[in-house]
């Protein structure tokens, strides 16, 4: 089978160009991208596509970068392919944005591709990743301790980005270019073993192929494909388990703990990505949250990055912004005067009344009235109950979470609790003939 037929079958089997007509090739001028562009151009009639090219000059390698641009333009001119070129000062931009030149260059490149795709109604963006790239990526991720997600190699397609020559080894690409008399340029940084990927490419894999397995690259990629299929099944099972266990930012521990540890960890990971907004989650946090879930102890919590925390509250595992303790507050009240309580986001007003109601009270003459938050040792005498009760025990019986306790106001008379906002009145201050009615208004 020729390389063209192999790529054609790979494109067809993976539905890479389904419904698409325009394909934009990222052309650096290197061997891989030259092979990709020439091959898609050669297959354009069989595939029913129009091929375009895009070249981003990063301005990093001086004259070498200018050489690459000249070559890319000349190569496209020879094929009759329209090419788009953009210049970006990646060194300066990376410094301004506080990121690596490699990451900044990647973002600039894909932003350029996306812009062209929208402007010229191009369906797909084709990049020149090959089988060796996939093997190198898997090894890099493995050495960094990646999960199954990172051991599936490079996908043939992610959104509108496709990799049509992912089925070819670097040796097959070299042979294709040679057989078609295709010239290309070489990025000098690819020959340096300073970078991790280059060390893997230039030193590690050649040694493994020489001493252990001459078909190591193909073996790695085949294993990655098997892991990708396993991942697809696990993803499907995770979705079903997630819907059983999780609602919003909370998981029912009774349901979560029924799941196999593999699914349980994946459910936790998904909760983290959804609620924290990042997929870059270290395994140590998943381990910590799983341990937290296994204890099931209300009040237990674990800190997470970026101001988040995991907490167990009354049979639920919750991922949330870390609770900021309000601190002690107290606001004096006067009948007829509205008072804003910023810690609660409420305004309160006491007005005279002769009608009994849930929020009507009779206070001792001259009593100092106030709204405050809880204090250590607080007790009250719940209306409808005998004796007194510790506020802490009442909150626990009501299954109020830490966050809800922080947001519960207390109406007091000479320091004694008269009313727990939204909950219960103290029977000592029950309405008798005339008194004050509490009006609570929510404020933004």
Automatic annotation (TrEMBL):
Quote the entry's note on domains: The N-terminal region contains the highly conserved SGGXDS motif, predicted to be a P-loop motif involved in ATP binding.
- Its primary localisation, in coarse terms, equals cytoplasm
Q: Name one GO molecular function term.
A: ATP binding
Q: List its EC numbers.
A: 6.3.4.19
Kindly give the SMART domains that the UniProt entry links to this protein.
TilS_C (SM00977)
The UniProt entry's sequence similarity note says: Belongs to the tRNA(Ile)-lysidine synthase family.
User: Does the keyword Endoplasmic reticulum belong to this entry?
Assistant: no
Keywords in alphabetical order:
ATP-binding, Cytoplasm, Ligase, Nucleotide-binding, tRNA processing
Domain of life, source organism: Bacteria
**What name does the UniProt record give this protein?**
tRNA(Ile)-lysidine synthase
Species for this entry: Candidatus Ornithomonoglobus intestinigallinarum
Cellular location(s): Cytoplasm
The family database entries (NCBIfam families) matched by this protein are listed as: lysidine_TilS_C, lysidine_TilS_N
Question: Lysidine-tRNA(Ile) synthetase C-terminal domain location, by residue?
Answer: 369-441
Q: Where does ATP bind?
A: 28-33
GO biological process, alphabetically ordered: tRNA modification
């Amino acid at each position: 089978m020729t390389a063209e037929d192999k790529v054609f079958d790979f494109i067809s089997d993976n539905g890479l160009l389904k419904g698409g007509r325009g394909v934009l090739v990222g052309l650096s001028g290197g061997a891989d991208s030259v092979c990709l562009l020439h091959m898609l151009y050669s297959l354009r009639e069989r595939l029913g596509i129009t091929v375009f090219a895009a070249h981003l000059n990063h301005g990093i390698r001086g004259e070498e970068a200018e050489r690459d641009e000249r070559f890319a333009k000349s190569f496209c001119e020879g094929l009759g392919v329209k090419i788009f070129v953009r210049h970006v000062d990646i060194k300066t931009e990376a410094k301004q944005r506080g990121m690596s030149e490699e990451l900044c260059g990647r973002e600039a490149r894909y932003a350029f591709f996306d812009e062209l795709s929208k402007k010229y109604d191009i369906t797909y963006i084709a990049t020149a990743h090959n089988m060796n790239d996939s093997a190198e990526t898997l090894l890099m991720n493995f050495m960094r301790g990646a999960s199954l997600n990172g051991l599936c190699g490079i996908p043939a397609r992610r959104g509108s980005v496709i990799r049509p020559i992912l089925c070819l080894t670097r040796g097959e690409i070299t042979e294709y270019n040679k057989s078609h008399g295709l010239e290309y340029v070489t990025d000098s940084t690819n020959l340096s073993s300073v970078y991790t990927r280059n060390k893997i490419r230039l030193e590690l894999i050649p040694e493994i192929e020489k001493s252990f397995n001459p078909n190591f690259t193909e073996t790695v990629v085949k294993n990655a494909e098997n892991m990708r299929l396993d991942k697809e099944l696990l993803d499907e099972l995770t979705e079903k388990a997630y819907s059983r266990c999780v609602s919003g930012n909370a998981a029912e521990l009774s349901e979560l703990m029924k799941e196999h540890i593999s699914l349980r960890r994946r459910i936790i990971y998904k909760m983290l990505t959804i609620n924290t907004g990042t997929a870059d989650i270290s395994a140590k946090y998943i381990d910590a949250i799983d341990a937290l879930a296994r204890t099931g102890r209300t009040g237990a919590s674990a800190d997470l990055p970026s101001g988040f925390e995991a907490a167990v509250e009354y049979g639920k595992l919750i991922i949330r912004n870390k609770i900021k303790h309000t601190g002690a507050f107290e606001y004096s009240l006067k009948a007829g005067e509205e008072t804003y309580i910023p810690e609660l986001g409420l305004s309160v007003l006491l007005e005279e009344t002769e009608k009994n109601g849930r929020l009507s009270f009779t206070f001792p003459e001259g009593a100092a009235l106030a709204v405050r938050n809880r204090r250590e040792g607080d007790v009250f005498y719940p209306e409808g109950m005998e004796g007194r009760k510790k506020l802490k025990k009442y909150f626990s019986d009501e299954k109020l979470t830490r966050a809800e306790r922080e947001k519960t106001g207390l109406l007091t008379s000479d320091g004694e609790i008269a009313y727990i906002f939204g909950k219960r009145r103290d029977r000592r201050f029950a309405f008798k003939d005339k008194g004050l009615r509490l009006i609570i208004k929510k404020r933004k």
